Amino acid sequence: YLKDQSIWEALLQSGVLLCSEENIMDYFHYKGELDESLVDYINKTSKQLDFSEKNSGFSKEQREPLFNKMVKCNDLANAQYAQMVVTLGFHYGKFSIPGIQESKMIILIDNKIIKMNVETLGFVRDEYPKVLYHFIRKYLDEYIGMMTDDLFAQSELIEILEWDIPDSLKLSLL
Questions:
Q1: Closest Cα to residue 159, out of 133, 141, 120, 128?
Q2: Which band of pLDDT confidence, cut at 50, 70 and 90, is reported for residue 94?
């Protein structure tokens, strides 16, 4: 832990400071944001980052602000982004954050950080049409289970009917 926190940025930029979960968390809590210095520091590491409470020793309350800022950070490299969102250990029951890059949305979907529900499906339809079918495919059973006449979208049905999935799933949508 640094006693003189005014030298944080210089240390991060110098490349002499070992990349660790503790250094990332300490700097983040000092600054309150993922600034360019911290993002560059994280992007330069080849170290596997593990922010799980068990590994890092940081509580949910300490990790959650980092997670909430990080999810929106398009400047993080995808590999580091994926490691961090997964090991921070949070997910969104209802998701409504605009402006996230497509590649990062796929990471969030693939790791089930974004859950399927009526509200999130509507948001993804409106804000992230390029990842919509990826989202539906990842949560196909949930999608089918919540489908109603009001929620139904013919274009989605046509797409899903072309997928290589069991006929029983296709029939349940008709």
A1: 133
A2: very high
The pLDDT of residue 9 is 77
Residue entry with tokens 């995808």:
78
Q: What is the pLDDT of residues 8-29, one digit of tens each?
A: 778 878 877 888 999 999 999 9
The model carries a pTM of: 0.90
SS (H, E, C) the chain: CCCCHHHHHHHHHHCCCCCCHHHHHHHHHHHCCCCHHHHHHHHCCCCCCCCCHHHHCCCHHHHHHHHHHHHCCCCCCHHHHHHHHHHHCCCECCCCCCCCCHHHHHHHHHCCCECCCHHHHHHHHHHCHHHHHHHHHHCHHHHHHHCCCCCCCHHHHHHHHCCCCCHHHHHHHC
